[in-house]
Amino acid sequence: xxxxxxxxxxxxxxxxxxxxxxxxxxxxxxxxxxxxxxxxxxxxxxxxxxxxxxxxxxxxxxxxxxxxxxxxxxxxxxxxxxxxxxxxxxxxxxxxxxxxxxxxxxxxxxxxxxxxxxxxxxxxxxxxxxxxxxxxxxxxxxxxxxxxxxxxxxxxxxxxxxxxxxxxxxxxxxxxxxxxxxxxxxxxxxxxxxxxxxxxxxxxxxxxxxxxxxxxxxxxxxxxxxxxxxxxxxxxxxxxxxxxxxxxxxxxxxxxxxxxxxxxxxxxxxxxxxxxxxxxxxxxxxxxxxxxx
Length: 293
Fold this sequence. Notes:
The chain is an alpha/beta fold.
């Protein structure tokens, strides 16, 4: 899609990349040194992780609309790990929609510092952030021109202890946070109609996802939990609207460690897994559009 102008608005850019790659596949980059292929696992964990990440990006590039870097997997190695993350983000920039998964959330000048990092040395397109501190946790990122995925309904089981609780009016905590996210994002919609303020909605929570999609018609969803965590195609389809838009579906372990169950080249295994993910999602989305036509 080189003939199409690439938008700068984060919500529009998300849709652009999905069209460019033929499907809403997002690859989660969650490197664990001990699970890296033997071909790249050397004596230095950080160098090994960086080499693996750069080769992984090349392998999934034809099929993935987005990549999501789990910051914790790099930060655990200290300053060397953060420096490697910075270089890997730079390599992904312009080749994918780039998401920095660091779940920050703060107020005032602290939030501004995080936004400066995400729009500067760690430059990405979207970040993940906690809504618990209110609009302060989002505003600095949005003002910096970044997209944000706020944590609304997460895929981890223990999240139910908070997110499923009912308020006095009968709505759940997740629904309340979703309504707040919609309110904060209303002023940040682009030409596509989608906001730069999105929501993290887990693939393992399909019933809640369907309700949230109805509640949040202009909010893009980042959907973790597909594949190894138990989310299936039918589950994630609840996150798309009737046009087949509005969601990025993230798979991590089922793609990045595909070599563990496939003989031969680890890069071929990863590439094939990314293609399968893209094609499965594209077909399911197309079927959803036909049903709603």
